[in-house]
Amino acid sequence: MKGVADISSHGILLGLALTLACGMFLLPGQGARAETAVSTEIAESTASVVGRINHAGFRRRAHCTGFVVTGGHIVTAAHCLPEWEEEMVHFQRGYDRGEDLSHHKGQRATFRKVNNSDIAMLCNAVPDVAPLRITTQRVAPGDMLGIPGYPIPRAHILQMHSCKTWKVAKGGRIHIACPVRPGTSGAPVLVDTADGPQVVAVMSASNRTSARAHRLTPAMLTTCNTP
């Protein structure tokens, strides 16, 4: 993710450097905190399909959040992937304090990146799990969003963050009117629909007052159909 601070836990020093280097994309002081909670249905429906994304390089460990969508594809933020093509990336579905429902892994090279977006997928990795569905529903300023992830310092427990949409920019970027903590990169951004909670975006970046996500559409899943 470019232009704002990285919210993955790719090291405290890296996070600080990116934060200092990047400018704000909300007006100062706007949206400092989540305003109201999302529905209980959203919180309960995500526990089995959201998990931790982990990898360990030569001198660092890192974690983000990921989730399963239609087709059994694991989705996360592209910037959460390690630099080395051969490095192994782990997804612990339903992770909770050292335990998980299932453990999936793939080399960084096996993840497919969505063009012009901070989104990556490990294709057809979890075929037997009821996935999160992706909505084409329009998101408007003021709409409440749910963001389940593994932010520090309580990075071993799935936490639900809720906040309102601030604006939707061209290119599908959704600006969110409150910040989220490191470790939430790659989390699903959810809205309540007539068919239950569904995904509208993938969490990408944050600063002290706001956050930003990239819109996820059903058409993007065709990334997994290309050679």
What does this structure look like?
The model is unreliable at 1-36 (pLDDT under 50). The strands form 2 sheets. A 7-stranded antiparallel beta sheet has the order 5-4-1-2-3-7-6, with no helix packed on it. A 6-stranded antiparallel beta sheet has the order 8-9-10-13-12-11. It has 2 helices and 13 strands; from the N terminus they run ααβββββββββββββ. The protein is globular. The chain has 227 residues and is mainly beta. The protein has 2 domains: 12-44 and 134-216, Beta Barrel (Thrombin, subunit H); 46-131, Thrombin, subunit H. 7% of the residues lie in helices and 35% in strands. It has helices spanning 12-21, 40-46; strands at residues 50-56, 61-69, 73-76, 88-93, 102-107, 112-113, 120-122, 144-149, 159-168, 173-176, 188-193, 196-206, 211-215.
Quick overview of this protein structure:
With 227 residues, this protein is mainly beta.
Number of strands: 13
Strand content range:
25-35%
Shape verdict = globular
Counting structural domains, the number is 2
The CATH architecture name of the largest domain reads Beta Barrel
Distance N to C terminus: 25 Å
**Largest sheet at a glance?**
7 strands, antiparallel
CATH fold category name of the largest domain:
Thrombin, subunit H
- Average pLDDT level: 83
Spans with pLDDT under 50 lasting ≥5 residues?
A: 1-36
